[in-house]
Amino acid sequence: MQIDKKAYQKYADARAKKSPCAKNCVCAFLYGGLICTIAQGLKDLYLTFLKEKEAGALVSVTLIFIAALLTGIGIFDRIAKHAGAGTLVPITGFSNAVTSSALDAKGEGFILGVGAKIFTIAGPVILYGVTAGAVYGVVYYIIQLVL
Questions:
Q1: Could you tell me the sign of the dihedral formed by the alpha carbons of 132, 56, 93, 99, in that order?
Q2: Do 26 and 86 touch, CB atoms closer than 8 A?
Q3: Residue 29 burial (CB < 10 Å; 0-12/13-18/19+)?
Q4: What is the pLDDT of residue 63?
Q5: What angle do CA 53, 55, 52 make, to 5 degrees?
Q6: How many CA atoms lie within 13 A of 97 on its CB side?
Q7: Which of 31, 87, 98, 132 has the CB geometry, 3.0–4.6 Å to 80, for a possible disulfide?
Q8: What's the pTM value of the predicted model, to 2 decimals?
Q9: Whole-angstrom distance, CA of residue 86 vs CA of residue 31
Q10: What is the mean pLDDT of each run of 10 residues along the chain (147 residues)?
């Protein structure tokens, strides 16, 4: 039996589970807000001992460590199942992506496994982020020369 693309798409759409968009948005907002609130609390705590710049850097390091630890012990994925995009607050999502890739590749050894595949997911983000930053910098520089 041959089925064309339109008929198959209609068939698949009729049987696909509908995503609760409003619930997902609320959960992402609340969990993302909670992560940011924790980060602000850490920064306020660190500011009692450190200067602004050092406290900000230590908050980033702490969030990366916590996300990597939770990924390693299998809790991050359970949180992300409920929080959705809320756990993708850039630094925690990035940490999870790198840690997950490393854990998946550890059976292949440290060099050909972890070393080669650790940035499988995060690598394109780094590449295009740096490229976009460079392009933006050149455009900004040209605009400053003209003005």
A1: positive
A2: no
A3: middle
A4: 96
A5: 40
A6: 16
A7: 87
A8: 0.72
A9: 5
A10: 82 84 92 94 96 95 95 93 86 88 83 80 82 94 92
